[in-house]
């Protein structure tokens, strides 16, 4: 090291930024510094850690410059223009800095580095370092997205049309409309666009940059002259304002007497003369700036002025975020900055960050319009963290405002859907389909979509993945319709069931075909799949399981024989159809790379878990006629044959109807039903009014009433049977087995419970906790029930549940 000049060859670099770097300091300016060091050039005594030592050195340097003593201070220092200032030390290695700028450097940082120059430490090393940064700052080719991002920088700092007005008293001559910052950005944006190929445009000084733009034909001499005169005038006003109190202010005094004194200080005889001159300058600057960016798209949909670029939190941005309902506006700004710093995989490409810049203000506005902005932002942040790439997402949000609002609704109200979106990005493509918000698809539509995605010549793994993709997409779109308000959760029950029917049928056919290729077919044999519970009643929610029974028939099965399949590897019929059932359950429930379809429950089959997986028709009939409990017949009221050939389907449906239409002892039936309800209350009972299934007066009571009355009256009134609870109640009323008033009360309860439970299942996982649920979900539940808020809805439930309980006690009355 050179003892007389230890800074030479030290690798320690102090870079001046901003007005200091451009030789444009104000009377009372701070100085913007960035400190770097080249680890290979630094030489320390043994035992010293280079990063720690240089951080301490930098801290001491800053303290010496800005510490106030009896003789005052030198300069206030600001180190926040360094790369990722919130997460890095105040002295940063050149290798780390180069990696940052090359990977996640932002366009506002490119603009800031135009004014960078080495002023302390190893000047030669600093010059070499800035030369290495030149390709980042000055790109030879700049694509459209990057140009749009450059335009967006100033629009974020202060929108040039409609946001803020030009004035005199209290006007900020730096950041306000028509101010110094607009002149600087006017020059810098064009420097960034053209400076990669035209080196003479790389001047850090604003006035020199304007001359260069004229020389290269980017702007006219008249525009440059106007802006240069305005720049000199506004800088003079800025100097004078700072001389008043030796503070870094850019604001014209607002109090009348102070304004009069300030006008005189600036060389004007009257406030009117000063005002006229200032207004003329501001208007001229704003007009030139507006024309430069007149084709730029609008960043916000409202009047909020939100700034996320730069080194410090913008007060107006914090105020706007607070007004939107964000409780920690500084954290919102920090979160958006973290996206730009590339801390998530989705944000590591330059194009993704450029697209984000163009949409981020409108995105935050949309999240702010949800019932719980804080939760919405947190959910979107988690969603973004799971995405492999953000480019497509932000491109879509830029061109599809409706999609942006839908995404905000999902993030603010439906964390479950948000998690699904993060795992299955292709769902955004599905939402863009014009039919996404149209009428609900029919069973035929689902059949067609699945058949197209599951060709017969595809291998079974491909079929399973295709089924999961299509079903996941269609189930999500049903949920989107609910969220958009085009259908209710109650309406969606039939669509969810139709989707399940379709995939069960197609997988059933495919498994039969694959089984036949190995084991042949059972001569004359066939099998059907019967849906039970919510599936049978077409009352499914977004998270419903599938309750299934597989029934088969084969020659000699009724006589106790065991027909055998006719393939190369023959199987007895019971084994054959048990294997078919196993494969069907696995096809529906086994996880693949595309997730799972449904959880499947076979416990409603004859003899439950002790019975065979597939039941012969003769054994099914014998069991139902002789051995089934009353609760099993209650469950059978919701049976619906989903898949299988017409002949066997008809015979199974006939067998079910015959079982349900048997005459019954009213007293025993009522006692069995009440005993079953009492057992459920003992095992699963709850006082939680939001456990709408098991709370007294909830779903179970309504369903038990409908099932009891169907079993009681079906012998005399054959038409009362229907697997759908609400339709069954209407049919019971038509048969006068239920009074019209009671039917209306019960049907109203079914509709309300279905809507509330359906929305809960769609939007959140796990049990519903009313007080801790997202505000958006609370509001949607209340609105769905026609109530002003959740408290009013809970009051309604507390009145309705006892009424349904009383109806159960009155209608299911033991003799």
| Main sheet specs | 5 strands, mixed
The whole-angstrom Rg is 37 Å
- The tally of strands reads 10
Quaternary organization: single chain
State the helicity in percent bands.
55-70%
Shape: elongated
Detail the poorly predicted runs.
157-163
Could you give the distance between the termini? 107 Å
- Overall pLDDT level: 88
Number of helices: 33
**Structural class of the helices, strands and pairings?**
mainly alpha
Write the layout of secondary structure elements.
Layout lengths: L11 E6 H4 L9 E7 L12 H17 L10 E2 L12 E3 H11 L2 H7 L3 E5 L1 H15 L6 H14 L22 H15 L11 H10 L5 H25 L10 H10 L5 H22 L22 H10 L4 H12 L9 H19 L4 H14 L4 H9 L1 H13 L1 H9 L3 H6 L10 H11 L6 H25 L4 H31 L6 E7 H4 L9 E8 L19 H17 L10 E2 L12 E3 H10 L3 H7 L3 E4 L2 H15 L5 H19 L14 H15 L11 H10 L5 H24 L11 H10 L5 H22 L4
Parallel strand pairs: 2-3, 2-4, 7-8, 7-9
Antiparallel strand pairs: 1-2, 1-5, 6-7, 6-10
Helix pairs in contact: 3-5, 6-7, 6-14, 7-8, 8-9, 9-11, 10-11, 12-13, 14-16, 14-17, 15-17, 15-18, 16-17, 20-21, 20-22, 21-22, 22-24, 22-31, 25-27, 28-29, 29-30, 29-33, 30-31, 31-32, 32-33
